[in-house]
Design a protein that fits this description.
Layout (H helix, E strand, L loop, with lengths): L5 H11 L6 H13 L1 H18 L1 E2 L6 E2 L5 H4 L7 E5 L2 H10 L5 E4 L17 H10 L4 E4 L5 H14 L4 E4 L15 H9 L5
Parallel strand pairs: 3-4, 3-5, 5-6
Antiparallel strand pairs: 1-2
Length: 198
């Protein structure tokens, strides 16, 4: 790029590695940050340094925060006996945004995958079993993605925890506002199997 420096090029390359950003979007973002240096770039750089120094994984559930035990795990009001199991932190944050779940979470850190060589010990499944006992959990809600690996993981967890705790999973099927014509066969099939009385 004409007139650029190595530092700016390096920043663009790093930004382009972020999910959802390619080289063009990264260039636009960096240019915008430079133009708004006092308003955006400097505070962003300061906060990124602070987060880099303080961010850590919750030792209990796997959420991301700035202390060893996250705010959700330390909130006594959330000790409802319900534990929502999710694949990753982004899923936990999505559940929190919805505001429908008021219990605690357990982040697996992925799903079982024979192709990728991911077994139970690479995930937080053993810790999940420990928490069910230690925290007197009455229900484990499996909020895993409706993929082959997600369902394989759900079945494995069900085998490991079966009989010790009530196990439920999120309903699957037609989304609100969804039209059957636009849905894939698997979604329609899941919706038919999960149908309920009116």
């Amino acid at each position: 790029m004409a007139g650029s420096t190595k530092d700016i090029d390096a920043l663009i390359e790093l930004m382009a590695r972020l999910p959802g950003l390619g080289p063009r979007s990264a260039r636009r973002a960096v240019l915008h940050l430079i133009r708004k240096r006092a308003l955006l770039l400097t505070p962003l750089a300061d906060l990124m340094g602070q987060v880099a120094a303080t961010a850590r994984e919750c030792l209990n559930c796997g959420n991301v925060g700035t202390s060893d035990i996250c705010d959700i795990c330390t909130d006594e009001r959330r000790a409802t006996g319900e534990l929502c199991v999710v694949e990753d932190v982004a899923d936990l944050w999505a559940m929190e945004r919805s505001g429908v779940f008021k219990g605690r979470y357990h982040v697996l850190g992925g799903t079982l995958s024979a192709l990728d060589g991911v077994g139970p010990d690479e995930l937080r499944i053993p810790r999940l079993a420990d928490r069910v006992t230690a925290e007197a959990i009455s229900e484990v809600i499996l909020a895993l993605n409706a993929t082959i690996d997600g369902q394989t993981t759900a079945h494995y967890i069900a085998d490991q925890l079966g009989g010790r705790v009530r196990l439920t999973s999120l309903a699957q099927g037609v989304p609100i506002g969804g039209e059957l014509d636009y849905l894939d066969d698997g979604t329609i099939s899941a919706a038919m199997r999960a149908r309920k009385e009116l």
